[in-house]
Amino acid sequence: MTMWGGSKNDRPENGDTPEEENHNGRSTSRRSYERQEPNERTRLIDSPRAPHSDGYLDPDDPAVSPYNLWSVRFLRYFTVLFLVVSFLWWVLLLVSIFISPPKMHSRGSGFFDFAFTCLTIGNLLVSVIFFVAPAKALRITTAIISVLLLIDVIVILAVPRIRLEEGWVGIASAVWAFFIAVWCILTDRVVAWGKREEEERLTGRPETRRTVKEWLAVMVATIFATIFIIIALLMTLTLGIRSRDATLSMFGERILVDGEKYQVHLACVGNVSYTHDKKDPTVILEAGEVPLEYDFEHWAYNAYQNGTISRYCYWDRPGYAWSDNAPSPHSAGMSADALSEALAKAGEEGPWVLVSAGTGSIVSRIFSSRHMKQVTGIMLVDPMHEDLLHRVGSPGHGFMLWAYGIISPLGLERLAGALFKGRTREDRVYGRNAYQGGKFIKAQLQDNLVADSLSKNEVVSARNIQGSDTPLVVVSSGIKCRTDSEWERKQKDLTTLTDNLVSWDVVNKAPHQVWDTLDGRTIMEKRLGSLVKKAAKMKTPQ
C-alpha cells in the first residue's frame, strides 16, 4: 500500500501523479517541454541538465545555431524571397520564347536573358540549401562568378548592337544575376560571422572542426559553384564573340518594321532601268533554310554581272544574318508583310520577279498573292509544299530546337570553331556556322511552332487567290526527287500554281541547294533570264 506524504488536502485529485501535479502550475507540461525544439532559452534557462559544469553548451547542440541572430534570419528570408521572384521571372522568360508578352520583346533570341536567370536561380538554390554551411571556398567561387557577370553587364552595355538586341529584358536579367551573386557572397559571410559569434557565446570558443555532414555540404556547394563558374565563363566568351561579330559590315541597310519593333536587313544591287518606257522588273530573292548571303546571293550576283538580270534586291528574314528576331509567334505571312513594309520604306516599287528557295518559297507565294499587280514572275527553286509543312512543324524537331537554343549562350560550337577551326565572322553571321547562333535558332523555332497551322493556312489562302496568268518557273533537285517520292509529287503539284508555266526542270545531280552544282546554277540562270524577259512584257500599273 502506497503512502502519500502530507495532508489529505495535499493529495492529487483525478488520478494525477506527483510529477504531473508538480508541473501543472507551470506553463508547459514535461511532455510538451520535451517536444519543444531546443533553443538557447530551453538549454540555458529551463533545463539545468543541458549545460556543462562551466555553464556552456556542447558544440553539437542544436541550440548553437546562427539562426539565433535576427540578421541571419533576415538574410535567409530575403534570399528565399529573391528565389521566388527569380523563379517567376524565369517562368515569364520561358513563356516569352514562345509568346512575346507586351513590351517584353527583345530583338535578340531571348536565350541569353533566360540563361542569366537560370544562373541566378542556381546561385540562390545553393545559398538556400547550404545556408548554415558557410565556407571560404564557396565565397571565392561565387566571387569569380560575380566578376564574370559584371564583365557581361559591361559588354552588353558597351556594345551598341548587343545592347539593342538584348533590350531592357536582357540587361535587367544580367544586372539581377550580378546582384544575386554579390548577395550570396554577403549572405555567406554574415552566416559565417553569426555561426562564430553564437559558438563563442554558447560554447565558450569558436568551433574549428566540421562534421562529416558539414564537409559534404561544403563539397557539394563548391562543386555546384564551380559548374556555375564554367557556365559564366562560357557565356562571357560567347558575348565576346558576339561583340566581334557585331563589327562585321553589311551591304544595304536595316529597316524598322512592324510598328518599329524590330529591324530587317534589305539590300539592292543595280540601278533602276527602263526599256521602251517600261520599267525592268526587279528580282526579289528569298532565302531557303540558310541565310541567303551564304551562296544563293552569289549566284544572283553572277547573273547580274552576266547581264541576265539588271537589278535585284535581297533581304534577311527575321532572325537571319543581320536581321533582328521578330516577336513570337511569327508566321510566314508575317515575314511577307515585313518584306512588303521594308520595300515600301526603302522606296522600292514593282514590277517584281520573285526568286525563292526551300521554305522561303512559302513566304514568296504569300507575298505574291498580296501584291498580284506588282509581281510579274515567280521562280521556285526546290520549293517547300504546304502539305509538307508538318515536317518543319514536328514536335520532336521543335523540342530539339528549343533545347539547342537553351544551351546556345554557352557557345560551345562557336567557341570551338573560332579557336580550333579558324571560323570567321562571316561564317558565324551568315555562313556555314550561322545555324549555331541564338537568333537563327529562335527563327527556326518560330517557324516550327506555326508551320503546320498558321503558316499553312496563310499559304493555302494565298494559293486560292494567286493570279493565274503569272509566269512560273520551277527548278527541282534531282537527288531530292529520287530519294523522296512524296517530295517529287509535290514538286509536280507546284507547277500548277498558275496557268502560265514557263518551265519545270529537275536537275539530275543537284542537292536541295540546287545552285551548289554547276548544272544547277546554269539552268537556274537560264530559266531566270527567260522568266525576266517574259515578265517584262506583262502589263503592270504605272
From TrEMBL:
Top-level division of the source organism's lineage: Eukaryota
A family per Pfam: DUF2417
SUPFAM superfamilies for this protein: alpha/beta-Hydrolases (SSF53474)
Alphabetical keyword list: Membrane, Transmembrane, Transmembrane helix
InterPro entries per the UniProt record, alphabetical: AB_hydrolase_fold, DUF2417
UniProt region (Disordered), positions on chain: 1-57
Taxonomic lineage: Eukaryota, Fungi, Dikarya, Ascomycota, Pezizomycotina
Designated name of the protein: Mitochondrial integral membrane protein-like protein
Compositionally biased region (Basic and acidic residues): 8-24, 31-52
Segments passing through the bilayer: 77-99, 111-133, 140-162, 168-186, 215-241
Keyword Transmembrane helix: yes
